[in-house]
Design a protein that fits this description.
35% of the residues lie in helices and 17% in strands. It has 5 helices and 4 strands. It is globular.
């Protein structure tokens, strides 16, 4: 089966998702979440990623991102997912696939949809019943973006345009 080709746009913003194989948990403890965030920071620089928002859920993840060069989107996702899989399999003495197929990407076409998408992503833990409020959940961009905390690696100034 061949991969579907996607049209990538210059200055395009994308909602990227990846799910654990058979909906299995991909983050089992805080160290796992932190390991993924560390990789996100590392590869963000290497692949010219502008990160607008994210949420790491126990069995899937969401990223809202733009790339300096659109062709880097697939390479970034391939590298970060493979790197995390290596970490996870080594830590838990496992082999094989961690992710359910290829990642998904959806183009965000309007400014209003970008804000809707960020809210959807950051309130995912509340809808899933694992946090009482978006601000209570440690592994999303909500605190940096909505509560105007000092951004460690999130691009938040785009909202002031």
């Amino acid at each position: 089966m061949s991969a579907r080709s996607k049209i990538l746009l210059e200055n395009g913003c994308y909602h990227l998702t990846a799910r654990g194989n058979q909906k299995q948990r991909i983050f089992l403890d805080d160290q796992d979440y932190a390991a993924f965030v560390g990789r996100l920071k590392k590869y963000k620089r290497r692949y010219g990623l502008k990160l607008y928002g994210f949420c790491l859920m126990p069995n899937h993840l969401h990223l809202i991102a733009e790339f300096d060069e659109p062709q880097w989107l697939s390479k970034f996702m391939q590298v970060i997912l493979r790197s995390y899989t290596s970490y996870f399999n080594k830590k838990y003495n496992k082999v094989g696939h961690l992710w359910q197929g290829r990642f998904n990407s959806r183009l965000i076409t309007r400014d209003a949809y970008l804000l809707d998408c960020l809210n959807y992503v950051e309130f995912n833990p509340v809808r899933a019943g694992i946090a009482r409020s978006a601000g209570d959940y440690k592994w999303s961009s909500y605190k940096e973006r909505a509560l105007e905390k000092t951004a460690d690696f999130l691009l938040i100034d785009f909202l002031e345009l």
